[in-house]
Amino acid sequence: MTITSAPTTRGPAALILLARLDSRRLPGKGLMDLAGRPVLGRAIDRLRRCRVVPAMLLATSDRAVDDDLEAFARAEGIGCFRGDASDVAGRCLAAMEAHGLDWFVRICGDSPFVDPEVTDAVAEAYLADPTLDIATNVFPRGYPIGASAEAVSRPALARICAATQALEWREHVTAWAYEHAADFKIRNISPNHSRYRGLSIAVDTPEDLARARAAIARLPDPTDATLAEVVTAYA
Asked: Over the range 100-126, which residues count as b (16 or more CB within 10 Å of their CB) and which as e?
């Protein structure tokens, strides 16, 4: 896949969606039906509205259990990189190296209501300051779980991977940087209110999937719905 460069001197970038099919709490969740589209497909539909970083790349594991995820990504017209199942930071770094990316925006594939405007705001914050290592909306979290986005430079991710081999850190990609924030330049993006705190619109359990199905039935257009509209549908 050819990665489209972001309109910046900071170089080529992509939205990297992270997914695998053997989740302990809800196995196969990424390809489960959500109003006629898989959960991962709903995320892709919404992310196609992103302006700042239009390219998408699925990063999944190299195990046979995730073959169907690769097939789905190819059918959707987005690239797919396969790497270590547990070392997610290493998988992301290898995906960046394989596709010549200078930075990426991390998105969880179990986020069918990920918001393109919020994702763009994180990417724009990263681009606005060429000295940043990470722009994020989870440090501290002000947006719902399921609307997370993190823009990470390749050098910053390489530093994280060089700093620790412990999977409890590398599984969460950026956790080491947040724990050692004095060693990284990080900017957090937060909403101007506290209404989203403590909310989740991700799909991680059977109960989450049931809630997502109920919420999406209340949305006239799930692809174009704003984050506020999605949260209201969950209420």
From this structure: ebbbbbbbbbbbbbbbbebbbbbbbbb
Residue 85 placed within a domain: yes
Phi-psi region of 36 (alpha: psi -120 to 50; beta: other; left: phi over 0): left
Q: For the chain, what is the domain count?
A: 1
Structure tokens at 229: 């509209």
In a domain, 123, yes or no: yes
Q: What are the E-state strand segments in the chain?
A: 13-18, 33-34, 37-38, 56-61, 79-83, 103-108, 134-136, 150-153, 186-188
| Residue 35, Ramachandran bin (φ over 0: left; ψ between -120 and 50: alpha; else beta) | left
End-to-end CA distance of the chain: 40
CATH number, domain at 161? Answer: 3.90.550.10
* Residue-level pLDDT, tens digit, the chain, 235 residues: 444 444 456 899 999 999 999 999 999 999 999 999 999 999 999 999 999 999 999 999 999 999 999 999 999 999 999 999 999 999 999 999 999 999 999 999 999 999 999 999 999 999 999 999 999 999 999 999 999 999 999 999 999 999 999 999 999 999 999 999 999 999 999 999 999 999 999 999 999 999 999 999 999 999 999 999 999 999 9
Tokens of 18: 């992270």
Domain of residue 155 covers: 13-234
230 inside domain: yes
* Count, residues in the chain: 235
Q: Is residue 1 part of a domain?
A: no
